[in-house]
Amino acid sequence: MNLDSIFYPKSIAIIGASTEVGHVGNDIVKNLISQGYEGKIFPVNPKASELYNLKCYPYVLAIKEKVDLAIIVVPSSIVPTVLETVAKKKIRGVIIISAGFKEVGNIDLENQVKKICQKNNIALVGPNCLGIINPEIKMNASFANIMPPNGNIAFISQSGALCTAILDYAQKLDIGFSKFVSVGNKALLSEADLFEYLANDKKTKVVAMYVEELTNAPAIIAAAKKLTHGKNPKPIIAIKSGRTSDGAHASASHTGALAGNDSAYQGLFSQSGIIRAEMISELFEYLRIFTHNKLPKGDRVAIVTNAGGPGVLTTDEVILSGLKMAKISKETENKLRKVLPAYANFHNPIDVLGDAKADRYKAAIDILEKDKNVDSILVVLTPQSMTEFDLTAKAIISAKKKSSKPIVASFIGGKLVEKSVKTLRASGVSTFSFPEEAAKALDALTHFANIRKDKYNTKFNIKNTNKQAADKYFIEAKKRGQTIFPEADALPILRDYGFPLLHSEVAKTAAEAKNIAHKIGKSVVLKIVSQNILHKTDAGGVILNVSPDDAGTKFTEMIKNIKQKFPLAKIDGVLVMEMVKEKGVEMILGSVKDSGLGNTIMVGLGGTYVEIFKDVTFGLAPLTAYDAQKMINKLKSKKILDGARGQAVMDTQALIDCLGRLSQLLIDFPNIKELDINPLLVLPKGQGVKVLDARIVIE
Amino acid sequence: MNLDSIFYPKSIAIIGASTEVGHVGNDIVKNLISQGYEGKIFPVNPKASELYNLKCYPYVLAIKEKVDLAIIVVPSSIVPTVLETVAKKKIRGVIIISAGFKEVGNIDLENQVKKICQKNNIALVGPNCLGIINPEIKMNASFANIMPPNGNIAFISQSGALCTAILDYAQKLDIGFSKFVSVGNKALLSEADLFEYLANDKKTKVVAMYVEELTNAPAIIAAAKKLTHGKNPKPIIAIKSGRTSDGAHASASHTGALAGNDSAYQGLFSQSGIIRAEMISELFEYLRIFTHNKLPKGDRVAIVTNAGGPGVLTTDEVILSGLKMAKISKETENKLRKVLPAYANFHNPIDVLGDAKADRYKAAIDILEKDKNVDSILVVLTPQSMTEFDLTAKAIISAKKKSSKPIVASFIGGKLVEKSVKTLRASGVSTFSFPEEAAKALDALTHFANIRKDKYNTKFNIKNTNKQAADKYFIEAKKRGQTIFPEADALPILRDYGFPLLHSEVAKTAAEAKNIAHKIGKSVVLKIVSQNILHKTDAGGVILNVSPDDAGTKFTEMIKNIKQKFPLAKIDGVLVMEMVKEKGVEMILGSVKDSGLGNTIMVGLGGTYVEIFKDVTFGLAPLTAYDAQKMINKLKSKKILDGARGQAVMDTQALIDCLGRLSQLLIDFPNIKELDINPLLVLPKGQGVKVLDARIVIE
Q1: Cβ A212–B312 below 8 Å, yes or no?
Q2: How confident is the model at residue A231 (pLDDT cuts 50, 70, 90)?
Q3: Beta strands A206-211; A236-240: pairing state
Q4: Among A124, B450, B492, B650, which lies 20 to 30 A Cα-Cα from A557?
């Protein structure tokens, strides 16, 4: 969708323009005029003839000239009527400022608005938003009365209130914007649509967003990739609220218990290459570094400091951020020895000593910049009696201008460093109050350079899935009204999708149990089959290591015990399953459906203590093979799969294959609400995996 | 030690006072005079007759009047000679600014200085320091030319360079100090001595420190408790550098591999009630909140906001910090409904809506302040068109003055909120740029209130330890030159300290093995005994579940295999050990000696994957029973001990008892360098624990 009618209109009609000062419909007209918009402005108000020296129109069709954008500020109930006239006038862009839609429960009204826009090919921002600002053409089409400087950051916010705070704060920091959008209820245009537009917007180099809720993960992932993996990479930095409010689902499955609402977002951001800022302050630090630096080639940082203590502190932060301290070359060291005093520290962090003037900083930075082992440089300065603040700042600025490596600074102090910090910022050197912030921001920059290397389109090659069979199975279950599929019912579905299962059959009688066990021909496990019993082990519904001869008596024993403990449970039999003798690692695969984003996928360390160690990662269907590998790489238990403490290397490839099968199953059946495969036993390399237990719930 | 001669001298001699502007010996005299010190100043310089209108003395004994404090700025080599004259002059306080001691390898020179001071009962700060500042009496006895405002924070810094940066930054934030000390090499006075002094210093309410290395953990813990648990609680906030530089010890023991240098400090801070700030910015945030607020009664926070988005963000931060969102009472809700508009949010976070003026904020804060379910209040403000910045600030100030609960604020924005933020700060309301910082600081404040409740003096009541026997055993080992004690050699020591062991004996022959196994009378474990084999299991030196009859043949088999694999290993026999059949939880107990702090103690989840999950906590000997319980409480695996997923509750009390025994062993034998008890099998409640394997290394 082309959004030029919204961001670059040549003429704007304000429908609901008010003559009353302080009202939103008045603020918008005032902001457009006073902040320098040079296009035509048409206030629409049937009760007034003039507003701020502009002619007022009684209705939109009374405007004879062409109108590109309509800003609607009328009460929500008449918005559909107004929109019909907007459509007639062939206006292509609309911003609805008015509230009173979905956010207060008026879902039908919002759908009506959406339909009119869709039918008439109108691009719609809002409703219930603050408006938009395009500093490039000095257009403030919002009721926030701040015009930010022209810059290269596009900001998308789901909170109007936060917009004003951000604009105010950014102004203080002299941070400029290319576009500023308050998206409101996102009836039509969502973040994904804006990503598509911004990918081709020459003025935008960085996209920042404040998010409360997103929908349609696949669309977001696809649109985000266009920004992050295009020819001109544009990072997306997001701050997401509600990290804790939802909490974990109240759920009987392990996956459900572990999957808070936020884990789906963690998965989404990781998969789509969106960088997450945990806090507002972090967001600004990231914006500072991204707007002024090229991407580093690697993660090796050199520190230049005039004080030992802060040098060590900075080293800590560099390493804790996930970056590496550069090991400078012998050649660099020799060069440094020629220009720095004998007591200086010639190993990273480079200490130019407390009496260093600008010349030492300059010499050290220039030498380090040429070292191939150095990917970026962090300059730390503390105020000492000999310190040359402004000259050091200038030395950094000139080094930065010549270099393609990120060079950032942290001048620690207050009044003494104030002026030089302003000089640095004005000349495009990212500057941070403390080295810890610089290190974090450098890490985000480096992280984005790595994201760019993602082989995100490495597709899965999944064979032997039988959608038709599973479909039939689900349809039959639907007929019975079945939505919960305990182990015995879940295994056939997994079989249809090619998951490696153990030999198992359900026995209804002791004799059947013995027969099946003999057919299996080795020790078996007996597991109770009942939709009413959730935790089989806790209920005494699992007996391990039963010899085929004992299977009958053990069957009778188990049934008797369970009937005693759970007299009301409906028992459908006992699952007789082959017993695995091979040693392996118990992992868990799972899925929970997120109301907004879709089907999440979880992988992690399984078994009984899965909820205690919480060593799990999340992704969203559909996964690529690359995504699956990345999810596993993030696990602590990856080391176990890789063969910790001299133990066998496990079949991680087979685990990845299962993630692909699970992803395919969820694409084919998005109505799967919860799914647990726990444990999934991963055997030594070449021996594959085995599903030991499973459970599925559909909507 | 009374340090009044240092902090409140009536007269100061500057030995090495220089007439050369820009030199340290000149700066100090200039700072003393120009920044308002009202006592007597005696510059000592044999080559000058006058300095800044003060008479110069050729040597210190030439001063006829009494001198309380000497500041020494002469070259390090003549410092001892100078100190002897200082002693003769009966000067009780000395600050040695001069460098050139331990920090450049001159350890003997530093020891000499230390001895002269000790012998003559001189309190010594330094050498190699910046000096000290006491704003109360306008004494700047340092070469940093900033005089901070008078305040209630005592700052102790191990880095001189950081001092100037901190002073400069604090000045910008209008943060005042009661004492400012650059401790340098700490030849005599250390942080512990300063804690003792500051505990009785009426001007000091908060102690902040920057630390690179500490020594003597017991002294620090004892002194810290005097500050934190005295009648007037004074929090200690520390920032510690070198969190990553040391890395984990290169070590063969699990404890060694897990115990980086920093873990000892984690243990120290936790045990002594010192609050750790991870970063400089955090330190300042903590200082802001501690200087202006009383301690909250609990951890329940109420948020008042004029915007939904920031309200949710703040809620996230409150919960992620470890605090709780207050559940406001029905009564409070009813009161709020009377004063706020119908669309407001009456549940925490309380949203007074975007058009709120100061009156709504005032009403909401006053009502919440009276709710018994609210322990502290966080006020969030974003700039909206109706917002009354200054009046809202005033409402908060007046509420804060009347209340004993912490009330803090975050006005998010830039220029629009600048003035009101200054007003808040000037009136003692802690104010933060973003709610996330406010939440973290509130958590630190609440954490300190909890520390105050620590029953830190709950002593262990350890019986049945036999120091004499262990002593004899170690002495004999020393005679043999033995420093490594593998399992078979370590178990007797643990037996002497009352650790519950399994029945075990070392067999030298197959026949002996069989005999011992029959004596044990049930299945046994065979384990190779060799100082050369570190990981017994990996080496094939462990056979589980051997019946007494098979013990002989399995013995022969193991010896043969090991000899093949490790032809050079000296094999001392095979340990035949009772096999435990009971199900329990495998934990690990351990210790590593830290060069500075002393003997650390570790507890955590044991077994093979201990280094993968790293679910361990650290403390320092001596532990109290309370410390031991606290260490266990921090473990994720605590949930397993408590009986996760319907499993048995384990004997945590027996585990705590073992921590006490370990602590006692380390107090009695501080030369124990490394110790691993892994696994320590914790059995169900009432059944105690069993040592399954152990290893000790002495210095």
Answers
A1: yes
A2: confident
A3: parallel
A4: B650
CB of B247 less than 8 A from some CB of A: no
For an interface test with B, the pick among A21, A612, A616, A637 (most B C-beta atoms closer than 10 Å) comes out as A612
Residues 6+ apart with CB under 8 A from A228: A234, A235, A236, A272, A273, A274, A448, A451, A452
pLDDT tens digits for range B48-103: 999 999 999 999 999 999 999 999 999 999 999 999 999 999 999 999 999 999 98
Q: Are the beta carbons of A176 and A123 closer than 8 angstroms?
A: no
Of the candidates B599, B583, B579, B582, the residue with the CA atom closest to the CA atom of residue B591 = B599
Q: Tell me, what's the pLDDT at B596?
A: 86
Question: What domains sit in chain B, N to C, each tagged with a CATH number?
Answer: 296-451 (3.40.50.261), 503-579 (3.30.1490.20)
Contacts (Cβ under 8 Å, ≥6 apart) of B399: B362, B365, B366, B369, B377, B407
| The token pair that represents B237 in the structure block | 């906030």
Inform me whether the C-beta atom of residue A147 falls under 8 Å from chain B C-beta atoms: no
Q: In sequence order, which residues have a C-beta less than 8 Å from that of residue A173 and are 6 or more positions away?
A: A284, A288, A425, B414
pLDDT in tens, A290-317: 999 999 999 999 999 999 888 988 998 9
DSSP A43-108: EE-TT-SEETTEE-BSSGGG--S---EEEE-S-GGGHHHHHHHHHHTT--EEEE----SGGGT-HH
How far does A376 lie from chain B, in Å, by closest CA? 20
> Would an 8 Å CB–CB cutoff place B103 in contact with chain A?
no
Which is more confident, A217 or A609? Answer: A217
Q: How far apart are CA A111 and CA A326, in angstroms?
A: 56
Question: Is A111 an 8 Å CB contact of chain B?
Answer: no
Query: Which of B 302-331 lie inside 8 A of A, CB atoms?
Result: 306-310, 312-313, 315-317, 319-320
Six-digit token string for A34: 């006073």
pLDDT at B404: 94
- CA–CA dist A408, A406 (Å, integer): 6
For the beta carbon of residue A457, count every other beta carbon within 10 angstroms.
Answer: 10
Of A625, A616, A617, residue with least CA distance to A663: A625
Q: How many CB atoms lie within 10 A of CB A561?
A: 15
**Residue ranges in chain B whose pLDDT is less than 70:** 1, 245-257, 259-261, 645-646
Contact in structure between B621 and B598 (CB atoms under 8 Å): yes
Q: What pLDDT sits at residue B466?
A: 95
Residue B255: per-residue pLDDT: 67
Residue A250 has pLDDT above 60, yes or no: no
- pTM to 2 decimals? 0.90
Q: What angle do CA A488, A489, A492 make, to 5 degrees?
A: 95
What is the three-state SS of B320-369? Answer: HHCCEECCCCHHHHHHHHHHCCCCCECCCCEECCCCCCHHHHHHHHHHHH
Is the ipTM reported for this complex over the cut 0.85? yes
How crowded is residue A691: how many other Cβ atoms within 10 Å of its Cβ? 22
Alpha-carbon distance of B125 to B130, in angstroms, equals 10
Residues facing residue B134 across a β-bridge: B139
Residues 185-224 of A with CB under 8 A from B: 210, 212
Question: Which of B165, B244, B639 comes nearest A612 by C-beta?
Answer: B639
Q: Residue B604: which residues within 8 A CB-CB, separation 6 or more? A: B258, B587, B588, B610, B614, B615, B616, B617, B635, B637
Q: Which residue has the tokens 């704007």?
A: A12
When scoring A157, A416, A610 by the number of chain B Cβ atoms within 10 A, the one with the most, hence best to mutate, is: A416
Question: Is beta strand A350-351 parallel, antiparallel or unpaired with respect to A300-305?
Answer: parallel
Q: How many CB atoms lie within 10 A of CB B225?
A: 19
Non-local (6+) Cβ contacts of A354 within 8 A are A306, A307, A382, A384, A386, B160, B161
CA distance A351 to A13: 61
